Amino acid sequence: MEFASNFLHEIIDEDIANGLTERIHTRFPPEPNGYLHIGSAKAIYINWSVAQKYNGLFNLRFDDTNPVREDDEYVQAILQDVEWLTGSQPSGGIFYGSDYFDKCYECAEYLIKQGKAYVCDLSQEEMRAYRGSLTEPGKNSPYRDRSVEENLKLFEEMRAGKYEQGAKTLRAKIDMASPNMNMRDPAIYRIVYATHHRIGNKWCIYPLYDFAHPIQDAMEHITHSMCSIEFKNHRPLYEWVVDNCAPCLPSHPKQREFARLNVTHTVMSKRYLRELVETGKVDGWDDPRMPTLCGLRRRGYTPSAILDFVTRAGVSTTDSLVDIRLLEHCIREELNTTALRRMAVTEPVKLVVTNYPEDKEETFAVANNPKDESAGTREVPFSRELWIEKSDFAIVPPPKFKRLKPDGEVRLMGAYIVKCNEVITDDNGEVVEIHCTADLETGNGNPVDGRKVRGNIHWVSAKHAVDADLNLFDNLFTLENTGSVPEGTNYLDYLNPESKKVLTGCKLEQSVKDVPAGTRMQFVRMGYYMQDTKPSENGGLSFNRIVSLKDSFKPDKK
């Protein structure tokens, strides 16, 4: 697999040219407090593809250093998502931040012994006040000059559970006057009384991310720790930890940053996504309208389309807002050549072929995919009574109408040419049944000399039809950039009330029952669909529209 070059590759190439001999090793470090989303796919792709490109290793490491909101449910979901997206388990292995709690504690004790860390009694609010601002330096904690012996004793007592949560923290002793706020004696350990999803109550103190992450990277021999751009100002602290804990660590990783992926008409904040789920605004983390990977998977998106989207969106250091239509274009472009074709009628009206025997049935061979001869054909049953789309008939047709009308002819896709002879309406003038005659010499699409039939409509045999609901999805939010909501409003104010529409009573071609689960199909003239993993509200079959047929996005060439 070829990977488009980007600035991260240039950094690695330069490192290799300057004598880096270690095998390139990357990692993806999600916190198991929610489900992965399309933005996570970019981080996965960057780290995984670098390992692929340089014949290196790729780790999945769960950042489970905060037990309050973490859960094994999220661990299992992330494992499934990463393997689904990359097509395999991580080549370097699967790890947990909690694997390294002993090492983090060892490094913390080492820093204390070197006079580079101290136990502080300031509250969170007091620490914030002492920290200063972007224009004013911070001031030293009154506990900054505790002796090494006192700090070691207090830190051991913190671990033993002697103090209340929030009563003390362990802080790195760096520089309260640093222009970088992250270097102003940051907290590196805090007291948390909560049951950890993996190790129970073994620990009551936990390392903070900025301290634990570089240690974890070093323990796994990560060569390039690639993370999103908001961590750029944290890089000096990352390097400080690695440099000052070097005697305890087996390697010296390097952190580099890339811009996050932002997509129109959706949100990427895990906090917002959780709020949508917990308040019932959506039907769960795997709601097909959600930007989560499990939601996209349930909707019918493929890993290859998502990776194509991430590649086209590009890798840079500048934040940008990517049009969601590019994602739709990527899956549409793929399914156009790969998806099976099937017929489905969404607003059915009865079509009776009056010159076709009531007891007769036959089948017509119809191509599974006109763009792929190797896909072969399937046999579609035909009978006297059919379902056609309500919109494919008009008593008073508009100009250039090429479908069925009184005394007009159309081709039934892959079958006969039929002519409308009679229309039956109800008391409100609504068409309830159309009677026609078929030219029985025109089966299997056979032409008739001298006759031009411009219309070609799809149909389903009423006797063999499969009932199903079709779920149609639109953008979850009406606002293009949810990261910049107008003053005085909330992102929830822009939830799209039309983001989901359910078409009930649809009539599908019989063969959809024989299609394996997870098969993506084009319902001809309707869009691309996949059977939902959950039944419809009435307990029957339900299909999710992955994307419509119409493509309004014009992407740049790859």
From TrEMBL:
One of its GO terms (molecular function) is ligase activity. It holds the Pfam family tRNA-synt_1c. Transmembrane segments: none annotated. It is an enzyme of class 6 (ligase). Residues 24-336 form the Glutamyl/glutaminyl-tRNA synthetase class Ib catalytic domain. Its EC number is 6.1.1.18. Keywords: Aminoacyl-tRNA synthetase, ATP-binding, Ligase, Nucleotide-binding, Protein biosynthesis. Residues 457-531 form the tRNA synthetases class I (E and Q) anti-codon binding domain. Residues 339-439 form the Glutamyl/glutaminyl-tRNA synthetase class Ib anti-codon binding domain. Signal peptide: none annotated. Coiled coil: none annotated. The keyword Phosphoprotein does not apply. Belongs to the class-I aminoacyl-tRNA synthetase family. PANTHER family: GLUTAMATE--TRNA LIGASE, GLUTAMINE-TRNA LIGASE. This is Glutamine--tRNA ligase. It comes from Butyricicoccus intestinisimiae.
